[in-house]
Amino acid sequence: MSGGLEPISPLEAVEMYHDAMRDEHAESTRRSAKHRLRAFIQFCDENEIEDLNDLSGRDLYKYRSWRREGHGDDREPIKLVTLKGQLATLRRFLRFAANIDAVPPELYEQVTLPTMKNGEDVSETTLDPNRAIAILDYLERAQPGSRDHIIVMMLWRTGARTGAIRGLDLRDLDLDGSHPRVSGPAIRFVHRPETGTPLKNQEKGTRWNRISEKAARYIEDYIEYHRPDVTDEHGRNPLITTQYGRPAGNTFRTTLYRVTRPCWRGESCPHDRDVDECDATHLDHASKCPSSRSPHDVRSGRVTFYRREDVPRRIVKDRLNASEDILDRHYDRRSDREQAEQRSGFLPDL
């Protein structure tokens, strides 16, 4: 032991970090950190760093270059915003490592983060509100009350995160509007980390969201005619289920990839592909379609819709459980021209 440090392998230190995260972080955050630090462990293996005590600033610089060039899981150069996220996670891990006497306290400071230009760390993809409404209209006609319909409807109508909708139980529904503190049909998002469904903002994310009478009727139809009557591994009754219980988060993502392809609704391909030969027509490869969108894109599309309709920021913030800064930076996809036109409607002629 030198300088007060205690020998520990990179793998053991990372495992301790993951365990420590259980006290304060949602499962999705822990999963993301685990994925990002997997590359760091691989780097240590390839460079024969068996004791984290031996990690140096020079090693950290080499790791930065190694990841930027795509070594690790990616196998191809990664984007600057991805690299920034990888290095930010490593910095947090090294601060933890210092607390357990694995590295010097100041080592994390030697992990410098790339400087991002305006908007460079923001995803540009979104589901245009007009497309979202068209997809939902199609589902209401072709598959009313189906699981696909309910997933898309809940994501679009509430603007909630996938984890919040996945965590809904039957007990969280007030479809007849009988709750004394909520006027009309509503659903309640609840932070339940002990049984596998935490909310992103933990207890602060617990809230009621109003839904329309129409949405409530579709949910009732889903429960009566399409929902497998199963419980999850904790004995809870999920709203959205598979034949095995509560669906994995990836179920929502693959559903969105599939239903947001234009060809899925019988539309012509906007990418000049031969539908009979396109790999993206196969369910396992739906994400390869340039038009496919993720649940995050639905959320950004919903924010854009609210902003176009001049819904007050406070209302949008509360309904989507996100700060105004996050909504502006990561979800609002109005063009500069659209924003200028909307501002002009509130300003007197000059």
Annotated CATH architecture of the largest domain: Orthogonal Bundle
- Overall shape: it is globular
Biggest sheet, in brief?
A: 3 strands, antiparallel
Which class of the largest domain in CATH terms? Answer: Mainly Alpha
CATH superfamily of the largest domain: Intergrase catalytic core
Structure summary:
With 350 residues, the chain is mainly alpha-helical. The chain is built from 13 helices and 3 strands.
Provide keyphrases for this structure.
single chain; 350 residues; mainly alpha; DNA polymerase, domain 1; hpI Integrase, Chain A; three-stranded antiparallel β-sheet; disordered C terminus
Structure description:
It is a single chain. The protein has helices at 10-21, 27-46, 57-68, 80-99, 129-142, 147-158, 162-166, 213-226, 249-259, 295-308, 313-320, 324-331, 336-344, and strands at residues 173-174, 186-189, 207-210. The longest helix has 20 residues, at 27-46. It has 350 residues and is an all-alpha fold. Residues 118-123 and 342-350 have low confidence and may be disordered. The chain is globular, with a radius of gyration of 23 Å. Helix 2 (27-46) packs across helix 4 (80-99), helix 6 (147-158) packs antiparallel against helix 8 and helix 6 packs across helix 10. It has 13 helices and three strands, in the order H-H-H-H-H-H-H-E-E-E-H-H-H-H-H-H. It folds into two domains: 10-110, Tyrosine recombinase, N-terminal domain (DNA polymerase, domain 1); 129-269 and 279-297, Intergrase catalytic core (hpI Integrase, Chain A).
